Each structure stands twice: as C-alpha cells, then as structure tokens.
Amino acid sequence: MNEIMILSIHFVMLGISLAIPIGPIKLEMIKHGLYGGFWPSWLVGIGAVCADFLFMSFIFLGLSPFLQEKWITICMLLIGIILLSYLGISTIKNSVTPLPLLTEHIIVQKRPFWTGFVIALMNPYNFMFWFGVYGGSLQSIPSTTSELIRIGLSLCIIAGIVMWNLNVAFTVHFFRSLINELTIRWLARIAGIGLIVFSSFLAYRLYSLLL
Q1: For residue 32, which of 149, 169, 156 has the smallest C-alpha distance?
Q2: Are 91 and 191 in contact (CB under 8 A)?
Q3: Which of 22, 74, 90, 145 sits in a 20 to 30 Å window from 96, CA-based?
Q4: Measuring CA to CA, how many Å separate 13 from each of 123, 164, 206?
Q5: CA 185 – CA 194 distance, rounded (Å)
C-alpha cells in the first residue's frame, strides 16, 4: 500500500510538471482569463485535459505505434501551425481594436473548451510527452499491479494537470481584477506573440521532418 501511495504522489507531481511550463495552452488560458475571467480560462484547461485523457487512453490500450506514423505527425504539425498562427494573429489584432477589451469574452466564451482541446491534441510536444514520459512511467508500475490500480495511477497524472490549470485560472482571474485595460491589452499582445513563436517552432519541426 505504501508503494502505491508513493507512486500516486509521483504521478500527481508528474502531471503538475507537465502543466507548469508556459506553452500554447497556458497562453490561451491567460488570454481567455484576461478577457472573460475564471470560466473561459478554466474551460480552455478542461478542453486540454480531455485531449490529454485521449492520449493517455491510446497509450494504455496499446495504440501508440499507430499514432507514431510519420503522416499522422505531419498532419498534427500542419494543423497546429495553422491554429496557433490564427490564434496569435487574432489575439494581437483584437488587442489593438478601439472596442473595450473586456467585452471580448462575449466572443471567446463560445469556444474556449474546443480551443483548448484542439491545441492540446495537435501539439507535438504534448504528443511526445504522453508517448515518451507517460509510456516510460507505466513501466515503473510493478507488473503484479492490478489493471484497476494502474488506471487509478494514470488518472493521478490527470489530477495533477487539473490542479495546476485550476491554479492558473484562479490566478489570472484575480490578477485581472487588479489591473487596468491598457495593461490587459499589452498582456494579450504578449500572449499572442507567444502563440506565434510556438507556431514557428512547429513550422521548424515540420521543415526538419520533411527534409
């Protein structure tokens, strides 16, 4: 039982470690949080978690060899580049409009869940984590462990991700209430630039893959 508890904590911390780095998902959570507050930001995180759960399920069911096909990676990269570029450009564009930025939530609240889901699903770095780190972590579970416990330990990673995303959504929500509209505009622009930078990384990865 003590070994299972230690593994549970390890997997929760693994999930938090995955969620901490600033990437496209966190930038979208920050952007939606600045525009609309807690719920739009939280829904982006929930959408990303659903994509993570999908990856985890594929690996757990032994489908990773199929998903590592080159053409699937190319498709993911293309969609990721287009999506992140679009989100980055639209974020910068919306941040310089004369309209009050804080009304933007009327637009973005319609699709935060699916935005988070698609970004996480099409992010090759997220893909590599699940098929690399998570796949290796499964090997650390004793072979005598029951399938039910293995599933429970895997869900601990999801729990860690959810905990950190909840922290981000709350932080952005309360931070937003303390700053003025001009600051929010500049933070949104920085988030937009960050999304474009990540899109450039994906484009470089695609270029290297096609050489």
Answers
A1: 169
A2: yes
A3: 22
A4: 21, 10, 31
A5: 14
Q: How far apart are the first and last CA of the chain?
A: 50
Tens digits of residue pLDDT in 85-142: 887 888 788 777 654 444 444 444 558 899 899 888 887 777 777 776 776 677 667 7
Whole-number Å distance between alpha carbons of 90 and 5: 45
Q: Measuring CA to CA, which residue among 33, 44, 26 is closest to residue 125?
A: 26
Please give the angle made by the CA atoms of 183, 189 and 190, to the nearest 5 degrees.
Answer: 90
Joined tokens for residue 165: 């995303």
| 62 touches 54 (CB < 8 A) | no
The whole-model pTM stands at 0.76
DSSP state of 37: -
Q: Is the dihedral of CA 176, 178, 179, 180 positive or negative?
A: positive
Contact of 54 with 121, CB cutoff 8 Å: yes
90: which 2 tokens? 């639209």
SS3 content of the chain, % helix, strand, coil (to 5): 85, 0, 15
